[in-house]
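Researcher: Good morning. I'm working through a list of sequences from a screen, and I'd like to move beyond sequence-only analysis. For each chain I'm collecting a predicted structure so we can compare shapes side by side. This is the next one on the list. No need for commentary yet; just the structure.
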Amino acid sequence: MSGLSAALTINDLKQRARGRVPRMFFDYSESGSWTGSTFRANESDFEHIRFRQRVAVDMENRSLATTLVGQPASLPMAVGPAAICGLQVADGEVKAARAAEKFGIPFSLSTMSIGSIEDVAEATGKPFWFQLYMMRDKPFMERLIDRAKAAKCSALIMTMDLQILGQRHADIRNGLSAPPRLNLNSISQIVTRPGWAFGMLGAKRRTFSNVVGHAKDVDDLSSLSSWIAQQFDPRLNWKEVGWVKDRFGGPVIVKGVLDAEDAALAVSHGADAIVVSNHGGRQLDGAPSSIRVLPEIVDVVGKRTEVLTDGGIRSGQDLLKALALGARGVLIGRPVLYGLGAGGEAGVTRAFDIIRKETDTTMALLGERDIRNIGPHNIHSNDLLKRQGY
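Model: Good morning. Structure tokens for this chain:
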């Protein structure tokens, strides 16, 4: 086998992307804040969870289908919002959105995407989710929400854990910017990735297109950097959920919840769903992994709202473990970035296919035919989970 067909795991796609994407953009997808302890725990904590194998069960006519926030999904999985998809590969957001639409799962577009809301709406035929970073500039926020409505986005994801940017040392060392500033550091990274560079020559967008030309006096890289540095809002509070809901008029998913008390506050202020998330380990280093706190959050709000989770999902087995601990579904980010870097839209499709195959095979070995039946009974030894802190 060669090319994408040789990729049997998400890690295979990651290694292929590593050789094709400039370091500053690959490291963006493959690093956390400060020491990276939470980034690593997001993956490693899944290893402590063991399945309960069942045999001699009729495994014909298996179904992986479900719904997520009222939207049909061929798998309990959505593409989570990830910035700079369009710098992993040219027009990356459009390519990822098309792959998700064909696969039959929701796609989420980040505020800090390279392709704009309008670009994705024009390139796809089904509604997608749009993620909001809450900025100080309220007129800009009003216009951004109105643009999402005009694009017929089916839900907004309101990110609550980025009032202050985490300590992202890899991004600083690599001189991350969008588009890259041309200096010795960036040029040395780009010239070693000629395929990426030639692809970017034909890209429709190379900077944060939801912001440039839409925020007041932001029209180039210098003004964009200055605007972003001033915009993340440390005063963000739960009342903003109601404001966003009133302006948008549709479902609002609150993302960045890592504590049961915050989960209850999100629901009481109108969240239609929550995402248990530590921002991929890129905000508070030393925080617990998402999977570690998922069960306690499900216990508090799981009967009142849909609970989704992200962080460390690298396989169909990880997906099933999250479902077994109470999640309705998962959001994936890095597997999509790896897929884009490895092979554009085809690479993302390959990532989806890998996770679907792993999910279906593992579910069958658990003795289940319908993924909606996955629950705590599929996990082996609850006492072990308790000793590990789950």
